[in-house]
Backbone:
């Protein structure tokens, strides 16, 4: 064999190409609405030190000794109320989003791409998504967590997991990480469009509630920008639609445990509004890019009951942006400059 042949017969030459991998991620869902599946899912979710910042040994004793013995059954009942024939709404919607994102990019001429979906917890996992991209020979990867407002508990945790997986790779790819888009003009436009369409059909409510997923106040005190980004998203949408600021409220939902979380709390706010003469509200949750348990069950059902049992008359939930065309346009606008 000549020296020239030895050089050109490179075993790696055919394995890698110039394609860019795009990994679309979200929080995740249990594989089934059962206590067994919830126990597995919650064990992974609540073991993440980004989620619970309690001394590790103490927390693991509480988690495995108490929470995972009680909470799975209760959570399974909640998931059963929203489960569809296709499975988890979050996973179903995320698949639709991923397919539309890929189609939009290819329609615009970006053909040297491979797109995969992954969840931070549960399936399909971040590890499996990255492996699929690696097996397709990509050498550049763009990570796109669908969390508009950065938080250490969501976007930060995603980065942790991606880093953990890549630590085991011999050849680490060129990596681009989108860490939020809370004020991107097209995201704000998409939110504004969803609200405008609702108002055109149902009329203007007495109060419009922007309900974001909550985090412990301790996170804010330690420098997490999430609270500030939520406030900014609300302000930009209000300005975009020229809404009356006095008719708009920003609240935080889904608190867990006894510690203080970001306030005002969504459920407490809804409970108090009727006594203040507010009987007609519309509510949306801009922190969720896809409808899930926290919107379909907590906002649509639980908080509706809170408001109506406190004397409220009209309550409506404005769906998450899901796979709306203007939402897909906003997400692809984040990706295209990196291709």
Residues:
């Amino acid at each position: 064999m000549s020296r020239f042949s030895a050089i050109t017969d490179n075993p790696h030459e055919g394995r890698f190409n110039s394609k860019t991998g795009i990994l679309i991620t979200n929080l995740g869902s249990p594989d089934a609405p059962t206590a067994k599946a919830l126990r597995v899912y919650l064990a992974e979710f609540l073991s993440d030190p980004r989620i619970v910042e309690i001394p590790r040994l103490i927390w693991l004793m509480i988690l495995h000794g108490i929470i995972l013995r009680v909470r799975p059954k209760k959570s399974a009942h909640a998931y059963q109320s929203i489960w569809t024939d296709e499975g988890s709404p979050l996973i179903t919607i995320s698949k639709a989003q991923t397919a539309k994102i890929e189609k939009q990019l290819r329609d615009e001429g970006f053909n040297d791409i491979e797109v995969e979906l992954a969840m931070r917890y549960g399936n399909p996992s971040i590890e499996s998504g990255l492996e699929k991209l690696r097996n397709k020979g990509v050498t550049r990867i763009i990570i796109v967590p669908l969390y508009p407002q950065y938080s250490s508990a969501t976007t930060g945790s995603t980065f942790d997991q991606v880093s953990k997986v890549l630590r085991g790779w011999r050849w680490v790819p060129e990596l681009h990480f989108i860490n939020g888009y809370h004020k991107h003009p097209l995201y704000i436009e998409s939110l504004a469009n969803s609200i405008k369409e609702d108002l055109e059909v149902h009329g203007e409510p007495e109060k419009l509630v922007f309900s974001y997923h909550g985090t412990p106040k301790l996170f804010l005190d330690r420098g997490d920008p999430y609270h500030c980004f939520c406030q900014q998203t609300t302000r930009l949408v209000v300005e975009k639609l020229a809404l009356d600021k006095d008719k708009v409220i920003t609240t935080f939902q889904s608190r867990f445990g006894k510690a203080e979380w970001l306030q005002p709390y969504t459920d407490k706010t809804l409970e108090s509004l009727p006594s203040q003469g507010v009987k007609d509200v519309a509510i949306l949750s801009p922190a969720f890019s896809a409808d899930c348990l926290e919107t379909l069950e907590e906002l649509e059902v639980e908080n509706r009951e809170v408001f109506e049992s406190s004397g409220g008359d009209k309550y409506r939930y404005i769906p998450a942006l899901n796979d709306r065309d203007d939402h897909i346009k906003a997400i692809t606008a984040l990706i295209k400059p990196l291709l």
Summary: The beta strands are 20-29, 113-122, 140-145, 174-177, 207-213, 248-253, 280-284, 314-317.
